[in-house]
Amino acid sequence: MRRPLIAGNWKMHKTVAETGAFLEDLLAEDLPPGVDVVCCPTFVALPAAAMILTGSEIGLGAQNVHWESSGAFTAEVAAQMLTEIGVGSVIVGHSERRTLFGETDESALARARAAQVAGLEVIYCIGETLDERDGGDTFAILERQTANLGVLDPSHLVLAYEPVWAIGTGRTATPTQAQEAHAFVRLRLAKLFGGDAAESLRILYGGSLKPANAHELLGLADVDGGLIGGASLDVQPFSAIIRAAADCANGDES
Ligand code: PGA
Fold first, then answer.
1. Atom of ligand 1 nearest to the CA of 125
2. For the chain, what are the domain ranges?
């Protein structure tokens, strides 16, 4: 049984003060056991967040990482700089990095490798655009995006399937679309890492996941949690999604 993971991708939201206030409120919530929770603030808010979360059950993630350990790479941050301050995981290859900042399958993989070497858990994002889905290319895209992931360590890897057309749009994949994409990705992972590793690997769904659709999506057989953008920015919807994940893990999907 895969333990669900709910990760909040805050993108370029929340100042250091707002990060602190959010995390204090989240820690005051009576969150259910059995669900891993990770918050991913901006780089500048990570040190303050790390101090607040020390000793808590809530994990801390970054939103990007560079593949070199140091050097002339203006504005980039190395994996060791993240682990030094207590960051445990990192999002890699998010579609906004791919479409707005030139991230490629190759650069995302290089980041993921460096992150794992430094001891970080990698949340590796994949997913098709609307044109690709409408053109019937969804599975070909997922195949391409996962083609070289076999060099990664599956025990410190989480996949995040995020159909680009569902991110921040209010449009979600239907349960059928999500389940078939996740099942396809798990088959790919089985080819790369073997069946046992693929069965234990978590595949998150991302794209307008919110309390209203959390039970139906998180209850799907191959959906092991969520990467949440908009609904992770307020404590109440984020906690509601965490509770939905716990309900689904306990077999109560209503
Ligand atoms: P969203 O973002 O939940 O706001 O659609 C998800 C993501 O980009 O990871």
1. 9
2. 5-249
Q: Give the H/E segment covering residue 145.
A: helix 138-146
Query: 110: which 2 tokens?
Result: 């290089």
pLDDT in tens, 54-101: 999 999 999 999 999 999 999 999 999 999 999 999 999 999 999 999
Contact in structure between 29 and 243 (CB atoms under 8 Å): no
Using alpha carbons only, how large is the chain's radius of gyration in Å?
17
pLDDT value at residue 254: 57
Q: Which amino acid is at 42?
A: T
Here the tokens at position 18 are 């707002």
pLDDT band at 170 (very low <50, low <70, confident <90, very high): confident
CA distance 239 to 245: 10
Rounded to the nearest angstrom, the distance between the alpha carbon of 60 and the centre of ligand 1 is 17
Classified by CATH at the fold level, domain 5-249 comes out as TIM Barrel (3.20.20)
Q: Give the pocket of ligand 1 (CB within 6 Å).
A: 9, 162, 167-168, 206-209, 227-231
Q: Please tell me the residue having the least CA distance from ligand 1 atom 3.
A: 229
89, 130, 167, 233: residue to mutate for ligand 1 pocket, most atoms within 8 A of CB: 167
Q: Is 215 a catalytic residue?
A: no
Q: How far is the CA of 72 from the centre of ligand 1 (A)?
A: 31
Q: Phi and psi at residue 11, in whole multiples of 5°?
A: 50, -145
Share of the chain above pLDDT 70, in %: 99
Is 76 in the active site? no
Tens digits of per-residue pLDDT, 209-239? 999 999 999 999 999 999 999 999 999 999 9
Distance 71 CA to ligand 1 centre (A): 31
